[in-house]
Specification:
The protein is an alpha/beta fold. It has helices spanning about 25-35, 90-95, 130-145, 180-190, 205-225, 245-255, 270-280, 290-295, 300-305, 310-320; strands at about 1-5, 10-15, 100-105, 150-155, 160, 165, 170, 175-180, 195, 230-235, 260-265, 285-290. The strands form 3 sheets. Strands 3, 4, 7, 8, 10, 11 and 12 form a 7-stranded mixed beta sheet that branches.
């Protein structure tokens, strides 16, 4: 810029390297502040007060009770699980007083051979027991122990009296004998009655006789609130003439309170006996045991003989809806102690 003197004449040159302009920053701050001020808020318009219109309440309505809602039956709760009672056992029935009745049927048919000849199953030699007697003493002793009164029927079959074949006849002078000794005595006494060993060998009549006695015994026991079950022990050489006839007789009586144990004496063909044991029937009541297979092991013989009886007894009573009676109360005075016998066998049933 030029520098001018008072007289208006140019006097020299002034060079401005830096110039500060005051007041510009203040002006900018003022303009920014003015932009940030919000516009004024308009005041709300208040309507002039007006008194409320008059209120007329609705007329009271008369009380009318409402019907209750229909009753809804609550959903039935699931019943609590009740475990099934355990299946009764043979011991449950015996402990409840079930009477066990043993009957014995002995084969006196001619197929057994001449009882006077050594080696035949009926051969009698002094006090020495033959095969029939050994089987009676071994098996009969175990079964007789469960017999309530130890009274046993003893029948024979396959012999002639007065020229007439008898398929069932009484052995011994009395309808029943006492204990195993009584069975053995009735057996031996039969050879002194003039019988003739004959044919055919037929067990039908003796099976039916035993079943009728078993049914009668259960009916009498049930009438007084008790129970009765019978076991028929058949001792035979196995040579039954008509196996199908025997099978039909067994099927006919299989709903009786009866078990049939067949002891095969000798070395005959026992296929017929095995058939009777395995045949189909409404209820299995037959057990066949070959004597010679166990003749040197009395314990095994008795165990094999009795293996099916507990289940057969329980099966009969359950089929007819008969449950064990409560265990009988026994007095100390009722306990009997027999004389010791080293040859006596003991067995446990479950």
């Amino acid at each position: 810029n030029q520098w001018w003197t008072k007289k208006g004449k140019e006097s020299g040159n002034v060079v401005v390297l830096r110039a500060d302009i005051s007041g510009m920053e203040e002006k900018k701050k003022k303009q920014k502040k003015q932009r940030e001020v919000p516009p004024p808020v308009a005041e709300p318009v208040v309507a002039p007060y007006a008194p409320p219109a008059s209120f007329d309440p609705p007329a009271a309505q008369p009380y009318a009770p409402t019907a209750p809602p229909p009753y809804a039956t609550p959903a039935a709760a699931a019943p609590a699980y009740v475990p099934a009672p355990p299946k009764p056992t043979f011991i449950d029935y015996v402990s409840g007083g079930c009477e066990i009745n043993l009957g014995v049927a002995i084969d006196f048919s001619a197929s057994n051979g001449d009882p006077r000849q050594p080696g035949t199953p009926h051969f009698l030699k002094g006090n020495e027991k033959n095969d029939y007697e050994t089987a009676i003493a071994t098996v009969g002793k175990v079964l007789s122990a469960y017999d309530t009164d130890h009274q046993h029927s003893v029948w024979g079959f396959g012999a002639k009296y007065g020229g007439v074949i008898r398929h069932v006849f009484q052995c011994g002078p009395a309808p029943e004998v006492n204990g195993v000794d009584g069975i053995l005595e009735a057996y031996r006494s039969t050879f002194r009655t003039g019988l003739g060993m004959s044919e055919p060998t037929d067990i039908e009549d003796v099976v039916r006789a035993a079943a009728a006695k078993a049914v009668q015994g259960q009916s009498i026991a049930q009438a007084r609130g008790g129970q009765s079950y019978s076991i028929l022990l058949i001792l035979t050489d196995g040579k039954i003439t008509d196996v199908n006839k025997a099978a039909n007789a067994i099927r006919t009586v299989c709903d009786s309170p009866l078990s049939i144990v067949i002891i095969g004496i000798g070395d005959a063909d026992f296929r017929g006996m095995n058939y009777l044991d395995d045949m189909q029937a409404d209820r299995d009541i037959v057990q066949f045991v070959p004597f010679n297979q166990y003749r040197h092991d009395k314990h095994a013989l008795s165990a094999a003989t009795l293996s099916e009886i507990p289940d057969q007894l329980v099966g009969y009573f359950l089929k007819h809806g008969i449950h064990p009676n409560p265990p009988m109360q026994q007095s100390m005075d009722d306990i009997a102690i027999d004389d010791h016998d080293e040859n006596e066998e003991f067995f446990t049933f479950y």
